[in-house]
Amino acid sequence: MADELRMDRTAAEAAASLPPDNRKHERIPIRLAVDYRRTNSFLADYTRNISRGGTFIVTNRPLAVGTLFRFTLSVPSPPTSFELVGEVVWARSDGPEPGMGIRFVYDSDEERQRMEEAMERLLIENLGPALAERLLSLGPNRK
Q1: Core-most of 27, 31, 120, 128, by most CB within 10 Å?
Q2: In degrees, to the nearest 5, what angle opens at C-alpha 92 toward C-alphas 84 and 123?
Q3: Please, what are the domains in the chain?
């Protein structure tokens, strides 16, 4: 597996075995490169996890809560980039893992559907169909 993409299989298996919590969408542990702009600089950070509704970006310089911004998620295998818009819904700049929680913002249901399908393919390709299906079926909108 490529260095840029790190799915923790043990963490994914643990997540699949836990009962659902109050989150709208189940989080999947995955590390993807994230590029975005802040004021006059370009930043390169990474995700800690991702779900149908958003992601957690690990960063020492989180954006302000409420900020809408455009960012790129890069998937190395096969090489693919997703251009997305997100809203910062919470942020922390201290503690063991500073970063920001991002809610995906879509222009249309078709755009949302394309991203969800791409995420499903990514999980299947990197975790295998059995584990991916267990993780994908955890959310309330699934089986």
Answers
A1: 27
A2: 40
A3: 9-136 (2.40.10.220)
**Judging by DSSP bridges, how do beta strands 28-29 and 33-38 pair with one another?**
unpaired
Side-chain-side CA neighbours of 8 within 13 Å: the count stands at 14
| Gap between the Cα atoms of 31 and 71, Å rounded | 15
- The sign one gets for the Cα dihedral 98, 101, 106, 109 is positive
Give the separation between CA 15 and CA 65, rounded to whole angstroms.
Answer: 27
Please state the pTM of the whole predicted model.
0.72
* Residues 48-86: tens digit of each pLDDT: 988 878 999 999 999 999 999 999 988 776 677 888 999
In 3D space, the residue among 8, 125, 107 whose CA is nearest the CA of residue 115 turns out to be 107
Phi and psi at residue 131, to the nearest 5°: -70, -40
